[in-house]
Amino acid sequence: xxxxxxxxxxxxxxxxxxxxxxxxxxxxxxxxxxxxxxxxxxxxxxxxxxxxxxxxxxxxxxxxxxxxxxxxxxxxxxxxxxxxxxxxxxxxxxxxxxxxxxxxxxxxxxx
Amino acid sequence: xxxxxxxxxxxxxxxxxxxxxxxxxxxxxxxxxxxxxxxxxxxxxxxxxxxxxxxxxxxxxxxxxxxxxxxxxxxxxxxxxxxxxxxxxxxxxxxxxxxxxxxxxxxxxxxxx
Lengths: 111, 113
What we know:
The structure holds 2 protein chains of 2 kinds.
Chain A: E1 5-7, E2 10-14, E3 19-24, E4 29-37, E5 43-50, E6 55-58, E7 61-66, E8 71-76, E9 85-93, E10 100-101, E11 105-110
Chain B: E1 4-7, E2 10-13, E3 19-25, E4 31-38, E5 42-49, E6 56-57, E7 64-66, E8 76-78, E9 87-94, E10 103-104, E11 108-112
Parallel strand pairs in B: 2-11
Antiparallel strand pairs in B: 1-3, 3-8, 4-5, 4-9, 5-6, 7-8, 9-10, 9-11
């Protein structure tokens, strides 16, 4: 069963705008990760946030984690055409040491 | 550094045939994983190996088997392929264990007719 659910399923924005994707999960977790997948390629790790962290930055990426709401958001600022990809969250539930994946958000950046 | 290498990239297979998907890593990671990715379902774990010589079942292991004879190689075998095994298969590895950062191969697209 899926632990993480991304929202929205698809997002289309203009280049230069900010993109926000959300991930909700069902049980308590140790950490949450975000990955990017370009069309036809493998997944690439973006950022990991631990359950005792509330916010983390990496370049143009900002991830927040709200454990009380069991949700996380990924913000991509000043989007570029190269950001067009699918984005997945993966959680590490306390009771299960394997990652559980959401179905992803498909992001399209229009030039 | 190549990272994770998967082969074949793509394969069309008749139902009932045996197929082995190959996965090799050059990062000396202890943990390795096989996932399948189907549209709308995200990634589902098939089998994993926390270290050479050990393997374990994931969420969807039926119809698949794996072996881990050494650190670098983690082949996935479909003993008798069925159409429901049509999917994109990803091999991944992790240095820090089952829930650390995963490094993925480029995938093997398998079609079972």
